[in-house]
Amino acid sequence: MCEAKEDLDKICETLDKLTLDALFLVQEEIDLKLNVENAMSGGEAHLAKTRYIIGQNNVSALQLPTENSAEFSSVIKVEGSESLLGANTYTLREIKKSEDETVQEPLRWFGFLVPQNLNFAQKMFRQALQWSVQAVNTQNQLQRVLHSISSLKEVKSNLTA
């Protein structure tokens, strides 16, 4: 009977720690999503300033590639990996021109001498992408913690029954 009591105490203690971890992960995810929102709105503001500086016809959908354009690769790719425990994690990898000849710098779609605001917008959008990947990783980690909590609750209910 004493051993069952010790097991129950360990399970309760672990549940308490996992619940705190879950709360911290929820807070971290909220912070990351707020950072993404702020970076996106800042990038959009810099894009609007660029349109004002060089004209709305010079920064528009007309400069973007269409389906008839030559094939190209992205500058940054999101890569996923799976750990031994089945946990997915994602990272960003920058593609160099030497690795893939079809890589194009998106700023060059708008000319060679672009305003500084367009560079700022690109940096803010890249930062938003990094925070988005971190938010996905945090969300995956939170799901694993919640799964562990539900499993331990099941074990606890079996012990108390």
From TrEMBL:
One of its GO terms (molecular function) is unfolded protein binding. It comes from the Eukaryota. One of its GO terms (biological process) is vacuolar proton-transporting V-type ATPase complex assembly. Transmembrane segments: none annotated. This is Vacuolar ATPase assembly protein VMA22. It comes from Phyllotreta striolata.
